[in-house]
């Protein structure tokens, strides 16, 4: 049985923090491969101004180029509509042979009980949680705690929201995301970049 990581998110845009978190998880948990799954439309949060999923998938493909364990999945984009982790994991369980490990940040774990069918999610996959700073972990029922693995990568204070804010203000984001992704954003005018150099 292979060990497959599933890293879901909006990736709006993907940045080096995502890539470091993914690489650390692959190494620590000895994963055979890790799937980056861009949400078609996030179901659990409002995302005004969200870049089209096709752009986000294209940027992911550029970001993971050259890493043989990283793959980009179109599963949520092709399904359309709001994205639900439980549906994605069910589909992956049917189409792949292996143990699934679903990556999430600590902030997502704090909201996990509000997700669609959380008990079913933990039947389908182990949760791989990346702690955020020195914040305490939320109180969880034992059934969920038993299915969690914690991976603590190097602390990188970068997030997609801050990248978008900086771009709107005309501030540089070079080295926050791979150069190929920066060039893609500028070429397609994403996040107000136009043809400005970053």
TrEMBL record:
It comes from Eiseniibacteriota bacterium. HAMAP family: NaMN_adenylyltr. This is Probable nicotinate-nucleotide adenylyltransferase. It is an enzyme of class 2 (transferase). Belongs to the NadD family. Catalyzes the reversible adenylation of nicotinate mononucleotide (NaMN) to nicotinic acid adenine dinucleotide (NaAD). It comes from the Bacteria. Keywords: ATP-binding, NAD, Nucleotide-binding, Nucleotidyltransferase, Pyridine nucleotide biosynthesis, Transferase.
């Amino acid at each position: 049985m292979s060990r497959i990581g599933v890293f879901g998110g909006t990736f709006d845009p993907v940045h080096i923090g995502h890539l470091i978190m993914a690489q650390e998880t692959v190494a620590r948990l000895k994963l055979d491969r890790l799937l980056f799954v861009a949400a078609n439309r996030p179901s659990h949060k409002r995302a005004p101004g969200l870049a089209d999923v096709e752009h986000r998938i294209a940027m992911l493909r550029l970001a993971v180029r050259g890493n043989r364990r990283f793959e980009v999945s179109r599963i949520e984009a092709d399904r359309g509509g709001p994205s639900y982790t439980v549906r994605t994991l069910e589909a992956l369980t049917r189409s792949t042979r292996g143990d699934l490990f679903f990556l999430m940040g600590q902030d997502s774990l704090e909201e996990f009980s509000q997700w669609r069918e959380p008990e079913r999610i933990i039947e389908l996959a182990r949760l791989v949680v990346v702690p955020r700073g020195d914040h305490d972990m939320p109180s969880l029922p034992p059934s969920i705690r038993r299915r969690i693995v914690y991976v603590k990568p190097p602390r990188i204070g970068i997030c997609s929201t801050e990248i978008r804010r900086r771009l709107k203000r005309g501030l540089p984001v070079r080295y926050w995301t791979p150069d190929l992704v920066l060039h893609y954003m500028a070429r397609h005018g994403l996040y107000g970049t136009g043809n400005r150099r970053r």
